[in-house]
Structures are given as C-alpha cells and as structure tokens.
Specification:
Number of helices: 4
Structural class: mainly alpha
Number of strands: 0
Shape: rod-shaped
Strand content: under 5%
Distance between the termini: 86 Å
Order of helices and strands: HHHH
Oligomer: single chain
Largest sheet: none
Low-confidence stretches: none
Mean pLDDT: 79
Length: 77
Amino acid sequence: MRKIYFQRRKIIIMIICVFLLILSGIFCFYQINMTRLQNIENSLVHKSEFYKLMYRENDFDFIKTGEKELENIDIYI
C-alpha cells in the first residue's frame, strides 16, 4: 500500500516538473524573441530615415516608397 502511494506521488511530481519545464522554455523563447526585436529596433537608431522606411516595407512597396522619398527629398535637404 505504501509503495503504491509513493509511486503515485512520484509520478505526480514528475508531471508537475515537466509542465514547469515546458512553461519555462516557452517563457525563455518569448524573452529571446523580444530581446531580438528590441535589438533590431535599436540598430535602426543610427540609420537614415530612408533606410528605416525600406526596412519596414515589403518587397512590393519598395519602389513606391522610394518614389515617395524622392518626391520628399527637399525636406531632407
């Protein structure tokens, strides 16, 4: 009787530990992803406005954004 009770407790503790390990892994992945995104944003601080706009645009809007920037070049000069 005592041996069965100990085995059940051992299995429950193992399940809880595995669950906590999975949660900590998800939290670490989230933190790494947020840190990566912050580093990308911080690297854009010293870049030109044109580079920042091009970085945020997808490939299809690249030419349109470039045309808008050429029209607004007087503001930068």
